[in-house]
Amino acid sequence: MPSSDNDRLKLIIESILFVADEPVEIAAFARISGHNEGAVLDAVDAIAADFQGRGLRIQRAAGAVQMVTAPEAAPFVEQFLGVDEDHRISHAALETLAIIAYKQPVGRTTIEAIRGVNCDRALATLRARGLVTEVGRAYAAGRPYLYGTTFRFLEHFGLEKPEDLPPLPKIIEEQGGGSEAPDVE
Description:
single chain, 185 residues, alpha+beta, Arc Repressor Mutant, subunit A, 2 domains, four-stranded antiparallel beta sheet, three-stranded antiparallel beta sheet, 9 helices, 7 strands
């Protein structure tokens, strides 16, 4: 039996994350539990800290949370599940993914300007693998799609949240410019 209101909130969140097939919005936890979003975020942080060094992790992105297995356990989980998936990503797709991860939200024209080549195929591959998705539209002419990373991206690279990406070297950061203003729909 939970000893405090915070322990009860952690119990609720952890239980829902355990049965959820998809990431769960922070607002949904607040609505279900009767707590405000700040309390929910604090409880999520506490659960994530509890999971450190164990077989589970909490991933957070775009106002949502999900429970996943620890990345270091992935080969064993895949073997148990009989997963025989080719995890290799082409060099072009990896370059495109890196640009999206660090510049998100970012449009195709910006990706192509940085890479110097067409990125349609790389984007199609990354979208098919569930590593990137359309996150909105730019205010530019034609309202092009803007791309960002997904929870699958976090899982694939063993990250808890997008902010866990290693920092870019200063020289690359200075060359890359900023991300595009999103119009998320």
